[in-house]
TrEMBL record:
InterPro entries: CdaR-like_regulators, CdaR_GGDEF, GGDEF_dom, PucR_C-HTH_dom, PucR_C-HTH_sf, PucR_dom
Domain GGDEF: 175-308
Protein's name according to its UniProt entry: Transcriptional regulator
Similarity field: Belongs to the CdaR family.
Pfam families: GGDEF_2 (PF17853), HTH_30 (PF13556), PucR (PF07905)
Coiled-coil residue windows: 240-298
Keywords: Coiled coil
The organism of origin for this protein: Clostridium gelidum
Amino acid sequence: MSDAMSIIVKDIQKLESLKEMELVAGKIGLERNVEWIYVAECFEDPLEGIKWLQGGEIVFITGVGMKGDMSVLTKLIKGISEKNGSGLIVNIGPYIDDIPQEAINLANEIEFPLFTLPWKVKLVEISQEISNAIVLSRIEENSLNHFLSNILFGDGELEGETIEKAAYFGYNLDGECCICVIDIDGFEKFLKTKKLEDEISISKLKITFRKIVQDILEKYALKVPIIDKDDAVIFFSKCEENYMNRLDKALKEIKEVIKKRIDGISVSVGIGNSYKDLKMMKQSLNEAELAINSAKCQGLDDTITKYKDIGIYGLLFSIKNKKVLENYYLDVLGPITESDNTTKDISSIQLLETYLNENCNITVTAEKLFLHRNTLKYRIKKIEDLLNCDLHNFDHCINVKIALYINKILK
């Protein structure tokens, strides 16, 4: 089974009733998800039957309605693929004795899995087995989602032996683990820009996003439990050095591939601290989200941020009462925000920020802000007077710096 536990085309090849099924084309498409089995035989015109496809079906035909016209097969392949079907199984027998080369070429070209199945294998057997496999995988996926949601979002105690339970689903969460969050940057804005409003398009976008994440993690041999939340993908990661090195490479590749594959989208990644106790995964999730928020505060997208690297932001984000932050900001920087209302050029906040970031170096700050040294000196003296502080005093600088951090958080 694939990691997401939904059935993919590759999985149905392993089913007992399909062991005589042969792949004749479209090998690259074997990773497609299978939502259900669909028999396109009930109509005079087989092409009429595929009008009702929803996407994700594996289609089965005997060719009874084709009346020997093999060109219908290429039209069927094209039609099913356009409807996002997962593949086509052709029952070889009295109606279709062989697959024409034209159909094989098309299936290979559009990466569409095309199979043949001997006549003696009966439809009722295969439809039953595929349906059962799909239903079972959904039950398992639901219980995995329930299990992960309970660890990350549940209110109560974790039931029983969580590590053993994870092992039952095929995941080793023994030792130190952390949470990693991959979040789509400005998702709402992206949907507005692309005028995407219908649920199906949004859902397809999220599925593509998750599939890219999953495939690349698998490529780097990272077998991790994944859960979706809004426009983000959350997963558990082991914290051994070798594992984290592979994760680092995988995350960089995920960012690149998403940019290439989904036009106009970038993602930001947050990684929480690692803990031995799975009860602490809630905490690690919170830290991973704060790591992303700290990058956003600095106006950054398309980043990978570890919570342990966010410094003072971690402390300030933990102050839940925003009024406390507001009051601190106004006490320290209030006088210059009021006086700035009349300034047309560089704001005092921007000037202060650059000056402190450049370790109070007048020359570098003046260059960065395209100001004359004397103008800058005059502005700094004015700011010091308004704030009643000395920007050569380390403690005063710290107070101002913290207030500037708070300003970014409040924005």
